[in-house]
Amino acid sequence: MKEAVGAHKETTVSNPETGELKRVSARTAFMFPGQGTQYLGMGKHVCDHSPRSTAVWDCASDISGINVRKLCSKGPMKLLDQTRYQQIAITTVNMASLVELTHYSPMAADAVLGHSVGEYTALYCAGAIGMEDTFRAVNARARIMQQISSNSEGGMAAVIGPSHTEMQELLEGSDMATHISIANDNTPQQQVLAGPRRQLKTFCRSLMRLGHKVVQLPVNGAWHSSMMAPGVDAFATVLTGIPLHYPKIPVIMNRAGRPVSDPDLIRRYLSEHLSRKVLWAESMRLLVKIGVHQIVEIGPRKILSRMLSDFVFPQTITVSHIDDIFRRRSISLSKRMER
Fold first, then answer.
1. Which pLDDT does position 151 carry in this prediction?
2. Domain of 199?
3. Catalytic residue among 45, 164, 212, 224
4. Fewest beta carbons less than 10 Å away: which of 24, 104, 220, 269?
5. CA-to-CA distance for 257 and 191, rounded, in angstroms?
6. Are residues 138 and 262 in the same domain?
7. Which of residues 329 and 60 earns the better pLDDT score?
8. Has UniProt tagged this entry with the keyword Transferase (predicted)?
9. Among 65, 64, 69, 61, which residue's Cα sits nearest to residue 43?
10. Which of 145, 209, 210 minimizes the C-alpha distance to 183?
11. Is 271 a known active-site residue?
12. Banded model confidence at residue 287, pLDDT cuts 50, 70, 90
């Protein structure tokens, strides 16, 4: 059953740390995807046709030491699937697409959010972090997570069917609760599990016997689980040297499921988030409550857009993907040239 979400023009949200209440309203939201969306050829449109995004590709390559253009276009896929490279590549495509969109379109975001590493592009879009510092943070994050995953046998799997509460009950009713945890509460019907591969495989088999669909994710670690805890302090140290500012528009953070504006709290949530759950479903519900009527996914694939089908949104809400926007623009330009 899809979850119905009511719409309001404005809502009150509280700071999860201080309890301070704030009125928030918005019309357009940009959302940015994270790991698992990679494919060879991603970002080709902006790489080939957007001179404005050149600075993004160059900055990513300079800071990471990776030829990001070549990685995205030619791979190899085995390399692109590694978190060390994947996070930089996805962030680059997200940011390059954003730069191109904001150049030729009057469309502007009233609120932003990103899934996992996509959150860094959201912060950039909101003016909370500069371009170079975005790539410094993501590069450090990717290195730390790669190092931890190379010393462990962690994995992740998406489970289609159970709600967050139902999945928690299934875990607690098994002997796997100390090993497996919910890493992403994505939708009312999709939970992502993380943990040691052997235990994860065993638990997923039991879920399939119950009739649930299980999809193994193309990642090489148990992200957003206790297996990432060894990297939290190291990443927190890195972030102390990364300048952060108060966002110009609300940034709904994964760690809180609410807008967070204080730079120190943003910094804390970014580091803690390595080992904490992605509250994506809660973030989606909030978008509707604050009056968003247009949601635009900016980045490779349409995974986040498709996940929204698990919710019942008001008919006034539209969801689009950056590729469709670019395609419509190309068709429009072609027709003009034919005249």
1. 84
2. 154-216
3. 224
4. 104
5. 16
6. yes
7. 60
8. yes
9. 69
10. 145
11. no
12. very high
Tokens standing for 264? 């120190």
Give the rounded percent of residues in the chain with a pLDDT score beyond 70.
89
Determine whether 321 is an active site residue: no
Output the pLDDT for position 24: 58
CA angle 207, 210, 211 (to 5 degrees): 95
Residue 278 DSSP symbol: B
* Together in a domain, 201 and 250: no
DSSP 3-39: EE----S-EEEE-TTT--EEEE--SEEEEE--TT---
67 and 127 inside one domain: yes
Residue pair 49/42 in contact by the 8 Å Cβ criterion:
no
Residue 295 has which token pair?
A: 């949601």
**CB–CB of 38/92 below 8 Å?**
no
Alpha helices in the chain, H assignment, sequence order: 44-49, 54-64, 68-74, 77-80, 83-104, 118-125, 131-150, 164-172, 197-209, 232-239, 263-272, 280-289, 303-307, 322-338
Say which of 53, 61, 97, 116 is annotated catalytic. Answer: 116
